[in-house]
Structure formats: structure tokens, C-alpha cells
Write a structure and sequence with these properties.
Elements (H helix, E strand, L loop, with lengths): L1 E2 L2 E2 L3 E2 L1 E5 L6 H4 L4 E2 L12 E5 L9 E3 L9 E3 L13 E7 L3 H13 L3 H4 L4 H19 L2 E7 L8 H15 L3 H25 L5 H12 L16 H15 L26 H9 L14 H6 L1 H18 L10 E6 L7 H4 E6 L2 H14 L3
Antiparallel strand pairs: 1-4, 2-3, 4-6, 5-6, 7-8, 9-10, 11-12
Helix pairs in contact: 2-4, 4-11, 5-6, 9-11, 9-13
């Protein structure tokens, strides 16, 4: 098999050869498309071509074998005018990843005085105070930054490289030949270095990061999974119908009778005190790549600074157990409509709600679960 890199607006992959007895599922899930549909040896299709640029090529032609080969020849031709992806720009807002900012957040959390939180005896107030402190530090030292992302950008392109390319083009259009040549040589050297570092870094990544970066330079299509539901309606209208459907699922459930709480005996003992060490252990095992839910506190912050957040969170976790009260923010969720089939044809029958819950609330649920179902 041969791997050809087509350096155009996106990275093209073309794999060809004798695929006899070779599993194809991994290649098809890349995603790559198999182009040869005619038998190439007797009645079997053994010689195949996989690519992610199907629209760039004509249907392969099977010709007689060359010399004494037992396999027919597969002739593949490009189309006269291959389709190119449209240039689209989107703006992404994420917290800054500045190492200095992270160090400052760490320093502030390590030396922060939580006495005011410990003196509070109201669970809702404690939770609001905790969130306000953490989010204010996050906004102060790691504020949101916006990035312009072009769909045809190479994955190794950096803002600095894009800056030099822009200056190179301005020098060319203004007729500054010497400056243009200098910037051209500089961008070429920088592109070579960035590309080399990017692909070399793939060898040392964990599986999640490896697949994330690989899909970036494969330009895997990310179409809207709800495209089949539009039917001439606006996105706001569809969102309203989906929201009404999900809300209606629990509309028939009766409200909880709070008067029964007065009959519950106070059997709270020291055995149900939450140890900060247990909270620290749970926080440090959080999967940072998962969505944090509606609380806006990133999972990486809870994981990396677990030793500084375990004390206040242990104090907060003890109050809901004593009071039988769950803070309002821990009852909220971000509900994502996920299609049961692709593409979905009906909002009522083909969508299921997936709820993204606050990570901190799930940590408390895990601790209570271990009490009720000890291993």
C-alpha cells in the first residue's frame, strides 16, 4: 500500500493495493471510502482503493492484467475540476491556557482563606460563594480568548505563523520585493519546523489526544446531526419544539410533598462525614476531556487543583446530607438532543435527551453511592 499526501486545501489520503484477507472496518471508520466496485481477480474484489477524497476521482476502470499477474489492473483518473471545500471561518471562545495564568490560579487557591465559607450554615449560600470565588479567579487570570478558526487551516498553523503570512502577502501586494522575499523565506522555514514538530508529537500522545489531532488533519466531516428535521423551519423554531418535547416528558409527574420531610428522623452520625481526602481522590480522577455541565468550572481545574479545593468542597458536601437539600445549580443540566437514527425524520420519535450534569454534583453522588453500595 502507498500513502500519498495531496497538499491542497486539505490533507488527502489514497491507499491502494492488494487487500486480500485484510479487515476493512478500521479504514472505513477513518473515514475512508472504497472506490473499486468491480471484481479484480476472478469474481472477487481484492485490489482496492481507499480515499477520503472520493469527489476528486472518477469511478475506477478495471483493465486486463499486466504481464503474468493474476490480478487485473485498476485505472484511476482524477476529475477535471475537483471540488474544493468552501472557506469558512468560525470564532471559538475558550479560557486562556497561559502557564503563568494557571500558576497564579494555583497560588491564589493554595493561599485563599475559606473561613467565610466555613462559617456559613446555609448550603445554597456556601455553593454560590464557592462558585463566585473560583470563577472570579478563572476570569481574572485565565480570561476567555477568542480564536478565528478556518476550516482549511492546517492543524499545525499557529497565530504567529498566520501573522507572518499576512505580512508576507501585504509586502507582495505593495511591491516591497526585498521584504517579501525575506518574509517568504521565513514563513517557509517556520512552516517546515511547525509541521515536523506537529507530526513528531503524535508519537508521544495518549489515545484520546492522538485521535483528536488525527481527525483534525483528516478533516472529518461534522455535519449537523439534526439536518433532517429542518423542513423549512428556522433553527429557533426547531429548538423550541424539541425543548417542549423534553419538558413534557416529566410534566405528568406529581410534585414532591415536602411535608414528609418533617417525619424523617435525624439519624445523622459521624459516619456520614465526608473526608477531604475522599473528595481529593474523587476530584483527581475526573476525566478532564468530558463536558463539565452547566456550572462553567472546567474539569481540568477541579482535577489539577484538587488538593486546594477538597477542603471547601468537603464542607459543602456535608450540608446537603444534613439538611436534605440540594442546591439549585446542582439540579440543572444541559440537555443535548441526540438522534436515534441518522438522519432523524421525526422530533417526537427519533431524538433522545442526553443530560450534561454538573461535575461537582456527580462527585457528591459518587461518594453517596459508595456509602450505599460499598465494594
Amino acid at each position: 500500500m502507498k500513502l500519498f499526501s495531496i497538499v491542497l486545501l486539505l490533507l488527502g489520503i489514497l491507499l491502494s493495493g492488494d487487500f486480500n484477507q485484510m479487515p476493512e472496518s478500521e479504514l472505513r471508520s477513518y473515514p475512508l471510502t472504497q472506490l473499486v466496485t468491480t471484481a479484480t481477480r476472478a469474481t472477487a474484489t481484492l485490489d482496492k482503493i481507499f480515499t477520503n477524497l472520493k469527489s476528486w476521482f472518477q469511478a475506477p476502470t478495471v483493465l486486463p492484467a499486466v504481464g503474468s499477474s493474476y490480478h487485473d489492473t485498476v485505472f484511476l483518473q482524477p476529475v477535471t475540476a475537483p471540488s474544493h471545500p468552501l472557506r469558512r471561518k468560525r470564532i471559538s471562545y475558550t479560557h486562556s491556557s497561559d502557564p503563568t495564568g494557571k500558576a497564579m490560579v494555583r497560588y491564589q487557591l493554595k493561599h485563599f482563606n475559606w473561613s467565610l465559607l466555613y462559617c456559613t450554615d446555609n448550603c445554597e449560600t456556601m455553593v454560590q460563594y464557592f462558585y463566585s470565588v473560583v470563577l472570579s479567579l478563572l476570569d481574572q487570570y485565565l480570561p476567555f480568548v477568542h480564536r478565528n478558526i478556518l476550516n482549511c487551516d492546517k492543524p499545525w498553523v499557529t497565530p504567529e505563523f498566520r501573522h507572518f503570512v499576512k505580512h508576507r502577502q501585504r509586502a507582495f501586494l505593495s511591491g516591497q520585493s526585498s521584504l517579501y522575499r525575506s518574509l517568504r523565506n521565513k514563513t517557509q522555514r517556520m512552516a517546515k519546523t511547525l509541521r515536523k514538530k506537529y507530526f513528531e508529537s503524535l508519537h508521544t500522545l495518549d489515545p484520546h489526544s492522538w485521535w483528536t489531532k488525527t481527525k483534525r488533519f483528516l478533516h472529518s466531516s461534522k455535519s449537523n446531526p439534526l439536518n433532517g428535521l429542518e423542513d423549512g423551519q428556522s433553527e429557533a423554531t426547531i429548538a423550541g419544539v424539541i425543548n417542549d418535547l423534553f419538558v413534557g416528558i416529566s410534566a405528568g409527574l406529581p410534585a414532591m410533598d415536602l411535608s414528609v420531610l418533617s417525619d424523617v428522623h435525624d439519624d445523622y452520625t459521624d459516619d456520614l462525614v465526608i473526608d477531604p481526602f475522599k473528595v481529593d481522590k474523587c476530584l483527581s480522577s475526573i476525566k478532564i476531556h468530558k463536558a463539565p455541565g452547566p456550572n462553567s468550572i472546567p474539569n481540568w481545574l477541579l482535577c489539577d487543583f484538587s488538593s486546594f479545593l477538597c477542603q471547601p468542597l468537603a464542607a459543602i458536601f456535608s450540608l446537603p446530607i444534613r439538611e436534605g437539600f440540594v442546591p439549585l445549580i446542582w439540579k440543572s443540566a444541559e440537555v443535548i438532543p441526540v438522534p436515534k437514527i441518522h438522519p432523524p425524520a421525526s422530533i417526537q420519535n427519533d431524538l433522545r435527551p442526553i443530560s450534561l450534569l454538573p461535575t461537582i454534583a456527580k462527585v457528591l453522588e459518587g461518594i453517596v453511592r459508595d456509602w450505599l453500595m460499598p465494594s
